[in-house]
Structures are given as structure tokens and as C-alpha cells.
Design goal:
Elements: E1 10-13, H1 19-30, E2 34-37, H2 42-54, E3 58-61, H3 69-83, E4 88-91, H4 106-134, E5 138-143, H5 156-176, E6 181-188, E7 191-192, H6 202-209, E8 216-217, H7 218-228, E9 240-243, H8 247-250
Parallel strand pairs: 1-2, 1-4, 2-3, 4-5, 5-6, 6-9, 7-8
């Protein structure tokens, strides 16, 4: 049994039905946290929470679209009503929508902004209000991306949103540190998930391009995330941790 480092903690993780978000939920639950797992797809969310519960974790699913501000507020409120508090909020939900810059549509542009930036901002706002009132503080974490630091073809809008939420984490130090709330971001690089492994060449390509000789796993990312929301990291705030096997140090293009 892993060390119960997150006993008596209540965590929300958005966009967590698969991949990085799911593994963050799984690790938090196995280390003692009560975890509220959110995904836009109810079937995927329920299945993910069921897997974690079967492994012995305390996890419930609350499906919904965090691009909808009213739902995001409801997600936090329901968590506090059911479990009495909110200790950790992880804004992991995001959409990519690859497209050539000259062909990018307004519909795609505003959808990416709505989910990636709006979902992050308003989850933080609502969770931080409760953390402030609780007097215990809390930890907030954003999932950014290496493309918030290095250019990547067909990802102009997505990369813009990731750079923006990193700046949000930095700016909110002014607003939240006085209430014992720290806020940070992780910026994953190439990572093996259900979605990326749909590309048969993905692992081979990124093994070649990554200085460490392999892409990250979801567990690699989750372990970094758990550190930043743990008591060990309470003096760290406003920072972004890049987890990419060294790719952004040299930045070879996959194209």
C-alpha cells in the first residue's frame, strides 16, 4: 500500500477520464485523498472512477463540460457539499484542435479558449473562494504544455492558451498566497496516453526526439503533479515545471 500522504484531502481533477488526468486521480486516491473525477463524457468518467474504486481508492465521478462556467461552479459546490471542503483543485481539462493558422475558424478558436482558459480560470476562482473561507488554504495546479514554451506546427491557438494559464498561475500568487493557497503548473511534453497511442509511430518518433530516449508516461506526469499539490511543495508557487525528457532543451521538430 502506498504511503497515505493525502489523507483527509479532497481533490477535484478535471478532464480526468483518461490519460494524465486519470493517473493523477488514481495516484491521489491510492495515497488517501477523496477524489472527484470530472470528464465531459459521462460514460468515460463513470468507468474511470469505477476502476479507481476497485483498486481501493475513494473516487466519485461528476461529469460535465468545464467550458460551461455554471457547471464548473456547480462541480466545486457539489464537492464541498458532499465532502465538507476542497483541498486540491487540478485544472487538467483541455482541448487541442490542430489546424493550419490560415484556416483556423472562429468557432474552433473560441472553443479552445473557453475550455482551456475559461475552465481553468473559473475552477480556480470558485475553488479558491472555498479555500479562503476554510482557513486551511489549499493547492491549485494547472496542466499546461511544452508548446507554451516552444513553437509547434498547427497549434497556435492551443499554445497561446497554455502560455496564458502559466501566466495566470504566476499572477495569482499576488491574490492567493496570503490565504495559504499555492498555485503552480506542469507542462508535459510528449506523453503516452490512449489518445497519443492511436498514432502507431508516436512512441518511436518521440523516443528518437527525446534526450532521455523515451516519451513520458502518464505516471511520470502524475508523480510531478502530486509533488506540487503536496505539503512538501507549499513554499513553491507561481511556477511551471516542464516534464518532457529534455525535449524543450533542444526542441527537435517531429515534422
Amino acid at each position: 500500500m502506498p504511503q497515505q500522504e493525502f489523507n483527509d484531502q479532497v481533490a477535484i481533477v478535471t478532464g480526468a477520464g483518461q490519460g494524465i488526468g486519470f493517473e493523477i486521480c488514481r495516484q491521489l486516491a491510492l495515497q488517501g485523498a477523496v477524489v472527484v473525477l470530472n470528464d465531459v463524457d459521462p460514460i468515460i468518467a463513470d468507468k474511470a472512477a469505477s476502476i479507481i474504486k476497485k483498486e481501493g481508492g475513494n473516487c466519485i465521478a461528476i461529469p460535465g463540460d468545464v467550458g460551461d462556467t455554471a457547471f464548473t461552479r456547480q462541480l466545486v459546490e457539489q464537492t464541498v457539499q458532499q465532502f465538507g471542503k476542497i483541498s486540491i483543485a487540478i485544472a487538467n481539462a483541455g482541448i487541442t484542435l490542430f489546424s493550419d493558422f490560415f484556416e483556423y475558424t472562429p468557432e474552433s478558436f473560441y472553443k479552445v479558449l473557453q475550455v482551456n482558459m475559461g475552465g481553468t480560470f473559473f475552477l480556480t476562482q470558485t475553488a479558491a473562494k472555498y479555500m479562503k473561507e476554510q482557513k486551511e488554504g489549499g493547492s491549485i495546479l494547472y496542466t499546461s504544455s511544452v508548446v507554451g514554451h516552444q513553437a509547434h506546427k498547427q497549434l497556435a491557438a492551443y499554445a497561446m492558451t497554455k502560455a496564458a494559464i502559466e501566466m495566470l498561475a504566476k499572477n495569482l500568487v499576488i491574490e492567493l498566497a496570503q490565504y495559504n493557497i499555492n498555485v503552480n503548473a506542469i507542462a508535459p511534453g510528449a506523453t503516452l496516453t490512449e489518445r497519443t497511442q492511436e498514432d502507431a509511430e508516436y512512441e518511436k518518433t518521440w523516443s528518437r526526439l527525446s534526450p532521455t530516449g523515451r516519451p513520458s508516461t502518464a505516471k511520470d506526469i502524475a508523480e510531478a503533479a502530486l509533488f506540487l499539490v503536496s505539503k512538501k511543495a507549499k513554499q513553491i508557487t507561481g511556477q511551471t515545471l516542464i516534464i518532457d525528457g529534455g525535449w524543450s532543451a533542444i526542441s527537435p521538430s517531429p515534422f
